[in-house]
Amino acid sequence: MLVTEQYGRSLISPNLYRVSAAGDLYTFQSYAVISSVSPNTGSLHGGTTLTINGEDFCNNAQYPVVVNVGGQPCTVLNASLTTIQCQTPVAPVNIASQYHGK
Question: Which Gene3D superfamilies does its entry note (predicted)?
């Protein structure tokens, strides 16, 4: 089972359920840890290669890596257990209409 929430996701193995000495059921969950992201700035036109370093990134056919930048998908170029590289998308354009009257 893969649990996905707003702030990340965790792969839960059904084989890891345990019973404590008190008889309580629990499970151990691993989660990704991000140690650095570079560069810390990029073009609004997209195309910047973003490198994310950390631990325990999960990337396989069943659970592919998903990265969002500014709420938009970042195209994953490479992914391993410790590094993800993706190409940033074009920043969304927010144009507000203004009408100043007559």
Answer: Immunoglobulins (2.60.40.10)
d(CA 21, CA 64): 36
Kindly report the pTM of this predicted structure: 0.65
Q: How many structural domains compose the chain?
A: 2
Would residue 100 count as lying in a domain?
Answer: no
**What gap in Å lies between CA 82 and CA 34, rounded to an integer?**
9
Pure H helices in the chain: none
Note down the domain range covering 1: 1-30
Residue 102, domain member (yes or no): no
